[in-house]
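Protocol step 6 of 9: fold each sequence in the batch and record its structure tokens directly after the sequence line. For illustration, a two-sequence batch is reproduced in full.

Sequence one:
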Amino acid sequence: MKKKIRFTVIGAGHGGKAIAADLARKGFRVALFNRTPLRIEEIRITKEIEIEYEDGTIFRSPLETVTSNIAEAIEGTDIIMVVVPASGHKDVAEMLAPHLKSDQIIVLNPGRTGGALQFRQILDSLGIGPNVYIAETETFLFISRSTGPTQAHIFHRKNGVHLAALPAIHTNLILEKIHTAYPQFIPARNVFQTSIQNLGAIFHPALALLNAGWIEHSKGNFQFYIEGTTRSTSRVIKMLDKERMSIAKTLKLNICTAREWFKNAYSAEGDNLYEAIQANPGYQGIKAPRNLRHRYIFEDVPFSLVPMSSIGAWVGVKTETINSMIRIASIMLETDYFKIGRTIETMGLKGKSLNEVESYIQNG
């Protein structure tokens, strides 16, 4: 009998709890790791997560292992699903490195912009060779929230999410395994596609920053996407998307606009971007952050917008609106995100030509 695939989920936040519970509900062996023991103490005791689905059905999903010991978490695991903010990718790579075994697969859910490239750089520096596979997704498969210490709620799942390995010659190998759980993952050309197709970079920081007063006054008591997106804020998003598409064109990537993405991922359509956002059923009921010290800023600005700006500068594309968002966030949060963000240096691209990098990300 064929051995059942074992997954390890790194991170017990909104996404980590949801995907761990969903995988367990599907019958897979699942380990859940979180670095802070207190965060998973009640799950460790019950060894299960209560998951509520889009249609209101509720299940109790049993987990095989719940731990804050990384060696225990990934022992005998086939696929490691990293579901933490991109600000934690460096720490996760350094934690995993001493315990990784040949043929294990690491999937960043998502990589944001340049996640797999930076992750690979860190593993290489620690002596971990290409026999450990790395991939990233363009976005997280679910819209989900943690609703209690042992509870999670999946509001919506996307129709399709692109995934790419680094290098891309391994993408099909990884998809063959991961499709046993999630056939929604579809092959991307390479990690440039998954990185530039990162729509969180376009929506999250802009809506948070442009609604900063409302967020701080109401403590997030409004629908972030539905009410936070007006015709004027959608024009800013559209301009950010235009710059993103210019980078994609220079990199010779065939990717969709934000408006096209809503149709593909959510079956949400409209005559313009504003109408497409308003038509998205997956955004109904999603509240705004309670304050600006939220992953929409501390993750998406330095690890989505900054690397897009850095890649843009590398390939000669102006990103004035993207840079403006980074500057506004830096002022509001009193943090130099240009300085601490992911760049072509940390992604291992500095000093290389576009042809050299394309060869590396396609073939290794």
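Sequence two, same batch, same settings:
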Amino acid sequence: MNVVYWLLTELSTRILPILGIFVPKIRHFVAQRENLFSSLSDFRATHTGPLTWFHVASLGEYEQAKPVIAALKEQEPSTWVVVSFFSPSGYEPTARKPQAGVDWITYLPLDRKSWADRFVAVLNPTRSIFVKYDLWYHHLQALKQRQVPTYLIAASFRPDQSYFSWYGGFFRRMLEQMDWIFTQNESSIQLLASFKITNASQTGDTRFDRVAGTAAQPMDFPTIREWIKDRPTVVIGSAWEEDMTLLIPLIQSKPDYLWIIAPHALDALAMDRWASALGVPTKKFSQWKGEQDPQILFIDNIGMLSSLYQFAHFAYVGGGFGKGLHNILEPLGFGIPVIFGNPKRASKFPEAAQSQLEGCGFAVSSFSELQECVHQLEQPEFYQKSTTAAQQWVKANLGAADRILAHLTNSTSSK
């Protein structure tokens, strides 16, 4: 398998530039990595000394890394922090503005052996931390050869993953090479143990730390606050077309509510189409000065959503009917109930099932179920129980970042 993987990575790095001639997304993917090594060399030349490297696939994993980065910087302020992304959808919005505690943001080169060796050699990290699942064989081999302590945090495993399949020996070896694995749940520990991987501990989901931090210090939007006043408001986060099919008739049936809609993709045509179907006063945030009084405000930018839940009586989070449910913990961090489409692959989103057991999350599969759920949340006693459940669940799951950091720093000091 090692030889097959080596051959595939060698071929892919040669084929992708050719495919990029015909496919703009691939062309962009390749072009963004062209000056990667020279930029990294320039950074390291002026930032010598201890460095911790975090690798994430995209934005969701970066959110899980943020609490650990913050705790690390507080404890080791002289340590440089570099974050690498695989996906443009994660790198591009993150690289546009300074990130707290992060000294350099870069793409990860494709997992060609020579590139992985060069990347690790130039970066020269003191420790490396991978988040959740985005593991690359040659990069891990390069770290091992240089004896760099390597960790996996926020891991959440399922039996149907490639690591645990009949052909999974190659992938499982990447887990075995980790100095330590920090999991979100006990079931992941048990699954690892069944394959004799015992260098692991359950520390919880760092997203709870992240959402609690956001709720404690949300961004301030005085224009939106003035618009809402004391009127009941629903925030719809990361809406897809499938979500809006259910939500449009609900919105039309609730003229007393205000609605803040943040689409999954910043597609102006989709927002215009939804506005036309709704038939009520709407406004895009970028075009709104606060003079008008729309019933619906479309958020046509990236970066506001996580703080907008502060205005919500309850929230709806999209994606469950499509490729994957988005972050339901963000509204729960503000202590409000959240509704979402019943995920097609529920095992990939254990927080969805757990939120239902806790009494603060509600999965729906049809408009009638959505309507009934909203009706329940309009009952004061039921709503109060749901908000209390949200607050208690988040509070009970805080501290994952501190537990991870305690292990990391103890491991470093003992070497």
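Proceed to step 7 once all outputs are recorded. Observation for sequence two: Residues 32-204+399-413 form a domain with the Rossmann fold fold (CATH 3.40.50.11720).
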